[in-house]
């Protein structure tokens, strides 16, 4: 079930941590993972992040198993799912596309996809535009900027 954010910032932060530590480990070095989701977990920044970004949540029962952040201009800033709940991502992406069409969002959606999720975005019609390199805590992250016209 997809819902709007309702103060579940700790659950959202836990999904992010789980996603980065278990899924990104297939494509990232330990230093890159620690730069993105350091140990020990600190959920305090997640309250402000979730309040400002208002992510869509995927829930199984009452448990948040995935989330997607999309701004009003159609930029998808994050799509994450807990390790054992990868089936959360496709419904979240479908929902975001439907919401963007309903809102009349700029005629296109954009995302910077990491290697772990590039294939999912391709399945939904996103096309690669360019490879970009982002930096966090001294580590570089290659991603593919992708676009889907609505």
Question: Describe it for me?
Answer:
- Helix 1 crosses helix 3 (44-53).
- It is built from five helices and seven strands; from the N terminus they run βαααβββαβαββ.
- The protein has a seven-stranded mixed β-sheet with strand order 1-2-3-4-5-7-6, sandwiched between helices.
- The longest helix is centred in the first third of the chain and has 15 residues, at 9-23.
- The mean pLDDT is 88.
- With 150 residues, the protein is α+β, with helices and mostly antiparallel strands.
- The protein has helices at residues 9-23, 30-36, 44-53, 89-103, 115-123; strands at residues 2-4, 56-60, 63-70, 75-81, 108-113, 127-136, 139-149.
- The two termini are 24 Å apart.
- Strand 3 and strand 4 (75-81) form a beta hairpin.
- Helix content is 37%, strand content 33%.
- 30% of the residues are buried.
- It has a single domain (2-108), classed as Gcn5-related N-acetyltransferase (GNAT) (Aminopeptidase, 3-Layer(aba) Sandwich), CATH 3.40.630.30.
């Amino acid at each position: 079930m997809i819902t709007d954010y309702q103060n579940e910032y700790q659950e959202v932060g836990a999904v992010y941590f789980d996603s980065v530590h278990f899924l990104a480990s297939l494509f990232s070095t330990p230093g890159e993972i620690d730069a993105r989701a350091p140990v020990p977990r600190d959920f305090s920044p997640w309250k402000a992040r979730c309040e400002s970004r208002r992510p869509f949540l995927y829930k199984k029962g009452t448990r948040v198993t995935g989330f997607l952040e999309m701004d009003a201009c159609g930029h998808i800033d994050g799509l994450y799912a807990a390790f054992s709940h990868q089936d959360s991502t496709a419904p979240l992406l479908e929902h975001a596309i439907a919401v963007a069409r309903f809102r009349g969002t700029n005629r296109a959606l954009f995302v910077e996809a990491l290697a772990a999720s590039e294939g999912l975005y391709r399945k939904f019609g996103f096309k690669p535009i360019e490879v970009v390199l982002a930096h966090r805590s001294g580590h570089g992250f290659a991603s593919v900027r992708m676009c889907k016209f609505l």
